[in-house]
Design a protein that fits this description.
The complex is a heterodimer of chains A (about 650) and B (about 130). Chain A is an alpha+beta fold and about 650 residues long. Chain A has 19 helices and ten strands. Classes of the chains: A alpha+beta (about 650), B mainly alpha (about 130). The interface between A and B is large, with 69 and 51 residues.
């Protein structure tokens, strides 16, 4: 019964999204007050029905209603409740419904906040409605989550054990909040082109920030999950699916910076519009790559060509339509504002040049093998070495320039004064480089450079915060986000340069060493989890001859799914991780074990969290400020 | 039941750790480890031969070690594996006419962006003067 209710709710949502699209677009006309009211209320109604549909599917998962094919295929009665719920989006159909739910939440926020004036809001809702209708059609025609099974099986097939993890339960909603969050900026940009741009950058800024924060957290979560779950101690593999989330992040970061210039000084108006379109396009391409089955990985649930084709048409229409609108309307926008070469505008422009080049690098690395294979059947791999050669230097150069931006004034800045205020940061960078060279072995140029740049970024942020006591939240937010980059950089450099590894086969009672630790393997015991059985190893960290802390990595078997996986044990000091993974059993009770000591690894994610906090601080400052600057209001009134 | 589960646990070959022969000569072992990281496990999702526990990777590791033991240089080992499995086994894509665009694209975008930025700044500063 709930399945049919869900299906019905989805159909009503489709109808309302179409109403929202038409009335929203009509509402961009000056006199169409009634249409605007319809757009607002249909957006809220659309949200209600999508929530109902999603709730119906979640209910089916929670009560294990195996007459719903999706539940039978992806759930199991013995699964803990939290993974029954996360199972809703641990599959293609459910994850597309989550996608639309997030879209509806953003549409609801746009309708509720009414930022940037009636006409702009209405246009944005119209575009959100078009996107929503397209995706609901996609769900209904190719990926219906409510299809029934008759007769219903007694038990479900379970969920891939890899996905039964708290980090991964949260990863997709977070990432989608980012991906789909960029749709709000996209819709505002399209509306701005329709209405004649009027303060849209300011109106859309909270949505850009929310999307960016969510993307930052989502990427950090995904990377953390890969680190502790996959059992080889890596945190980023330049896997196409990871890249699919990095590209929108790079563009969203560029957009945040460019939109700031557009809002504060009127510079780069058309460029910012284009970036808003590009950001969501990257999200769509990411969705296509992940969902179409073009890539085979844990993420690609779908391998139905009809789905891939549908998504491709959808993307072509969305991106093509937006670009056509841009080409038609952008030339009529007023040209750029004036600024000096040494100004914040120039700094933000350079930021954009480097970020877009970095994104081009990830884009090429991800899509080139697919294109080459399609063109002449040549198969190549684009692995981490490619990104070390291309992405790393481009991003490194960007990081060197970061501290100048906040120090240069709008329109006309003082480069000499900026340099002077950065002298302590330069000193700190020098000290960091010398310290790394003197203390830590092995010596590497990359790690030394990375620590110098990290110190440069963090030092500059500290100067910023100290100098501008009583400054606005935005200054602190920027300092925090930039410092977070430095912290992450230290984590990446430390782990990459100084990780120690031990890969051994040990018998109970036997000791082995990894990095500074001596570990003793005290055997394995069999334990029973809610829906798995595990071999749990007991490994003591030796403190001289006495055993200290005990780590317990597991090797789990999930009988329902017929799969096994490793559950790593990590002991962290906050600055150094001891990381253990249990392997397969050898003859006579010996086990394979993998141990890593990863210096500074936690900093990778702590830095990500600091960046996200910077974003949140900025958002907090924004939501307290009025949605429209007086000047923008005047400009709109004058049209 | 317990026996069945124990049997199941034993039957599953996954999670095999990439353990195998090691050279007693540390220089040769270091070369082998370094080489192993440069080749991709073709049956895994993005793992290199050094970290993967798949039978395919075990084979490739064995081949690499045989080649090193036979006195082949790193370049010869690479040529041998490419001849056997194709360019797709290389983690670092080869530089050849059909990958020039791949290698140059980021820097072309950077260069083009730089030129555009130059023009934009120049124009913006002359209007302000």
């Amino acid at each position: 019964m709930t399945g049919e209710l869900g299906q019905l709710a989805l159909c009503f949502a489709l109808a309302l999204s179409l109403v929202m699209a038409v009335s929203g677009l009509i509402g961009t006309r000056v006199e169409a007050n009634a249409a605007r009211r319809v757009a607002t209320s249909s957006a809220l109604g659309f949200l209600v029905f999508i929530v109902l549909a999603f709730a119906a599917l979640t209910y089916a998962f929670v009560v294990s209603d195996f007459s719903v094919a999706l539940v039978a295929g992806h759930s199991h009665t013995l699964k803990p409740l939290v993974y029954k719920i996360s199972g809703v989006w641990g599959n293609h159909e459910g994850s597309m419904l989550l996608w639309v739910l997030v879209l509806a939440l953003y549409a609801g926020m746009v309708a509720f906040l009414q930022r940037g004036g009636e006409r702009l809001t209405s246009g944005a809702l119209g575009v959100q409605g078009l996107l929503a209708a397209a995706f609901i059609l996609f769900i209904l025609f190719t990926s219906n989550p409510f299809l029934r099974l008759d007769p219903a099986p007694f038990e479900g097939a379970g969920l891939t054990p890899l996905l039964q993890d708290p980090g991964l339960a949260m990863h997709p909603p977070m990432l989608y909040a980012g991906y789909v969050g960029l749709s709000a900026s996209f819709s505002y940009a399209a509306a701005a082109l329709l209405v004649g741009e009027a303060g849209w950058a300011r109106a859309a800024r909270p949505f850009m920030l929310i999307a960016w924060i969510a993307l930052t957290c989502g990427i950090a979560l995904g990377s953390w999950w890969a680190y502790y779950e996959l059992g080889w101690g890596g945190f980023w593999g330049w896997d196409p699916v990871e890249n699919a989330s990095l590209m929108p992040w790079l563009i969203a970061t560029a957009l945040l910076h460019s939109a700031l210039a557009t809002e504060k000084s009127g510079a780069f108006r058309t460029w910012t519009l284009l970036l808003a379109i590009a950001g969501f396009s990257m999200s769509l391409i990411g969705t296509f790559l992940v969902r179409s089955g073009v890539l085979s990985s844990v993420h690609a649930f779908a391998s139905d060509p009809a789905r891939g084709f549908f998504i491709m048409v959808l993307i072509a229409l969305a991106i093509g339509g937006a670009l056509a609108l841009f080409a038609w309307r952008a030339p009529s926008l007023q040209g750029g504002a004036a600024f000096e070469p040494a100004s914040r505008e120039t700094a933000l422009l350079l930021n954009n040049v480097f970020l877009v080049a970095a994104c081009a690098c990830v884009f090429a690395g991800t899509l080139y093998p697919l294109i080459l294979d399609a063109l002449n059947g040549t198969k190549i791999t684009v692995g981490p070495p490619y990104y070390v050669i291309t992405f790393a230097p481009i991003f490194f150069a960007l990081l060197l320039l970061v501290p100048f931006g906040p120090r240069l004034g709008w329109k006309r800045g003082d480069l000499k004064a900026a340099w002077r205020s950065l002298v302590p940061a330069l000193g700190l960078a020098g000290i960091a480089a010398i310290a790394v060279l003197a203390i830590v072995a092995p010596r590497t140029i990359a790690a030394t450079g990375a620590f110098a740049v990290a110190a440069w970024l963090i030092g500059a942020s500290i100067i910023d915060v100290r100098k501008r006591k009583g400054a606005r939240a935005s200054a602190f937010a920027a300092a925090l986000a930039h410092a977070g980059l430095g912290v992450t950089l230290m984590g990446v450099a430390g782990t990459t340069a100084w990780r120690s590894e031990a890969l051994t086969v040990v018998a109970p009672g036997q000791s082995f060493t990894v990095g500074p630790y001596t570990l003793r393997f005290d055997g394995v015991s069999r334990v029973k989890g809610p829906n798995y059985i595990a071999d749990r190893a007991h490994i003591a960290v030796m403190d001289g001859a006495k055993p200290g802390a005990v780590l317990q990595p597991e090797h789990r078997l999930y009988p329902a799914e017929g799969q096994d996986m490793s559950d790593t044990a990590i002991r962290t000091t906050g600055l150094r991780d001891l990381y253990l993974a249990l392997g397969d059993e050898r003859d006579d009770g010996r086990f394979a074990l993998r141990a890593y000591v990863s210096p500074l690894a936690p900093l990778i994610w702590i830095g990500g969290l600091i960046m996200a906090l910077g974003g949140m601080l900025s958002l907090w400052g924004r939501l307290r400020a009025p949605a429209r600057e007086p000047a923008a209001a005047v400009a709109q009134a004058a049209e | 039941m317990k026996a069945v589960i124990a049997l199941l646990l034993m039957m599953i070959p996954a999670l095999a750790m990439p353990l195998g022969d090691t050279f007693s000569n540390p220089a040769m072992e270091a070369r082998a480890r370094n080489l192993q990281r440069q080749f991709r496990c073709l049956v895994c999702a993005g793992e290199n031969v050094d970290e993967s526990g798949s039978p395919f990777s075990a084979d490739v590791r064995r081949l690499i070690r045989e080649q090193i033991a036979a006195g082949q240089s790193d370049g010869q080992v690479q040529d041998f594996l490419v001849a056997r499995y194709g360019d797709v086994i290389l983690m670092k894509p080869p530089v050849q006419p059909d990958t020039w665009l791949l290698w140059l694209a980021p820097f072309l975008v950077l260069g083009a962006g730089g030129v555009v930025a130059w023009v934009v700044v120049k124009k913006a500063s002359t209007t302000s003067a």
